[in-house]
Specification:
The chain has six helices and eleven strands. The protein is α+β, with helices and mostly antiparallel strands. The chain folds into two domains: 108 residues, ATPase, nucleotide binding domain (Nucleotidyltransferase, domain 5, 2-Layer Sandwich), CATH 3.30.420.40; 114 residues, 2-Layer Sandwich (Nucleotidyltransferase, domain 5). The C terminus is likely disordered. The site of zinc ion (ZN) has 6 residues, from loops.
Length: 231
C-alpha cells in the first residue's frame, strides 16, 4: 500500500538527520551524517545535500509530498533562514531556498525551530499526546523547546516561541555564544553537563574527559528528551 510521505530534515549541532515519515508518524527511511560544525557554511550545506541524496535514492521518495525542516535555533521562519548557535558557519543562512535548489521546484518546504518540531511530534505521537498544554524540550548539543497551548503548536511570528535554551537563568553567569549570559543551554545542554561532569572528576571509559556523546549514550536514542506537562 502506498501512502503520501513527508521528507523530514533535522539540523543539529551534532548530526544532520533526514527521514521519510508516513501519515501515522512512522519513520520509513532514515539517514544521518555528523554536522561539520567547525567548517564553513558550504560544508554544512554539503552534509544536508548528502542526506537528501540518500533519501532521494530510496523507493519511497516518489511518494514524498512535502519537506519539513526542524533546525537548531534561532530560526527566522518567515524568511526561511537559520542561525544555529552551535553552527557558526550559518548566520542568517537561507536554508529553505537552499533546500528548494537541492530538490528542484515543486515540493513545499516548511521550516520551524527544532524545539517546535519536537513539540509537534510529541503532541502528535508521543509524550504530549492528548494534552492541551505542554512545553517540550530537546536537550542535546544545545537546549531547545517548543510550546503547545490550547491544543495547538504555537511557534510565534519568528518560529522561536518556547526556545527556552537562551533564557537567562544566572544573571552573572558565563557568556554564551548567543551574546547573552547565564543561559539555560550553557548550564543544562549535553555539552555543558559533560563539561561540568569532567570538572567534577567523571572520566570517559578510556580515562579521558567525558564528552556530550557519553552523556547522550545514557539516553536511549542519542538525545535526552523531556516533556513537561503544564497543568
Ligand atoms: Zn545563550
Amino acid at each position: 500500500m502506498t501512502t503520501d510521505l513527508v521528507a523530514a530534515l533535522d539540523i543539529g549541532g551534532t548530526k544532520i538527520a533526514g527521514a521519510l515519515v508516513d501519515d501515522s508518524g512512522a519513520v520509513r527511511e532514515r539517514f544521518q551524517v555528523p554536522t561539520p560544525t567547525r567548517e564553513p557554511g558550504e560544508a554544512v550545506l554539503a552534509a544536508v545535500e548528502e542526506v537528501f541524496a540518500a533519501l532521494v535514492a530510496t523507493p519511497g521518495w516518489a511518494a514524498v509530498r512535502g519537506v519539513g525542516i526542524g533546525s537548531a535555533g534561532p530560526v527566522d521562519a518567515a524568511a526561511g533562514a537559520v542561525s544555529p548557535v552551535n553552527i557558526p558557519g550559518w548566520r542568517g543562512f537561507p536554508l529553505v531556498a537552499a533546500v528548494r535548489r537541492t530538490l528542484g521546484a515543486g515540493l513545499p518546504v516548511t521550516l520551524v525551530g527544532d524545539g517546535a518540531a519536537i513539540a509537534a511530534g510529541e503532541h502528535w505521537c508521543g509524550a504530549a499526546r492528548g494534552v492541551d498544554n505542554a512545553l517540550c524540550m530537546v536537550v542535546s548539543t544545545g537546549v531547545g523547546g517548543g510550546l503547545v497551548l490550547d491544543g495547538r503548536l504555537r511557534t510565534g511570528p519568528s518560529g522561536n516561541a518556547g526556545h527556552i535554551g537562551h533564557l537567562c537563568v544566572e544573571l552573572d553567569g558565563e557568556k554564551c555564544p548567543c551574546g547573552g549570559r547565564g543561559c539555560v543551554e550553557g548550564i543544562a545542554s549535553g555539552t555543558a553537563i559533560a563539561r561540568w561532569a569532567g570538572e567534577h572528576g567523571l572520566r570517559a571509559p578510556d580515562g579521558g574527559p567525558p564528552t556530550a556523546a557519553h552523556v547522550a549514550a545514557a539516553a536511549r536514542e542519542g538525545d535526552a528528551v523531556a516533556t513537561v506537562v503544564l497543568k
